Amino acid sequence: MRIAIGADHAGFSLKEELKKALGEIGVEYTDFGTFSDESVDYPDFAAEVAERIVAGEYDRGVLVCGSGIGVTIAANKVPGIRAALCTNADCARLSRQHNDANVLTLGARFTDISLAKEILRIWMETAFEGGRHARRLDKIGELERRFCR
């Protein structure tokens, strides 16, 4: 499993903690920035991580900003990305089981470190169930083909 990780300035500190957690569970990752808490624009980092995933360079991604909302919106503009803002363990599990989310997004201002690590662990360990959920993902793919130019 190869993970692309990124954050804006508001998510920088939490991203650093998540990198430690990934290392502890033996997951390979590449950090696409930002590398400080100086103000930057979250769409730049969301796009970089998302593009690397759809190019097949990475299996999944993790993005962090202040609320988690901005990076979720930005990443989901890239066809093939299913970014899920997870606020608890159940969201993390379901985002993988039912939606095959390939990007986990977190809000650093609203998610403490221990909860973020739990969400990350569950999200990494949970497999996509397929079945009726695969049919729904096919429909999402059709929406992307219809509306993304």
Which helices and strands, and how do they pair?
Layout: E1 2-7, H1 12-24, E2 28-31, H2 42-54, E3 60-65, H3 69-75, E4 83-85, H4 89-97, E5 103-107, H5 113-125, H6 132-147
Parallel strand pairs: 1-2, 1-3, 3-5, 4-5
Report on the architecture of this protein:
By secondary structure, this protein is of the alpha/beta class. It contains six helices and five strands. A five-stranded parallel beta sheet has the order 2-1-3-5-4, sandwiched between helices. The termini are far apart.
Query: What is the tally of helical segments?
Result: 6
Gyration radius, rounded: 14 Å
The CATH homologous superfamily is called Sugar-phosphate isomerase, RpiB/LacA/LacB
How would you name the oligomeric state of the polypeptide chains in this document? single chain
Q: What form results from the Cα inertia axes?
A: globular
Q: End-to-end distance, in Å?
A: 30 Å
Structural class, please?
alpha/beta
> Describe the biggest sheet?
5 strands, parallel
Task: State the gist of this model.
The chain has 6 helices and 5 strands; from the N terminus they run E-H-E-H-E-H-E-H-E-H-H. The protein has helices at 12-24, 42-54, 69-75, 89-97, 113-125, 132-147; strands at 2-7, 28-31, 60-65, 83-85, 103-107. The N and C termini lie far apart (30 Å).
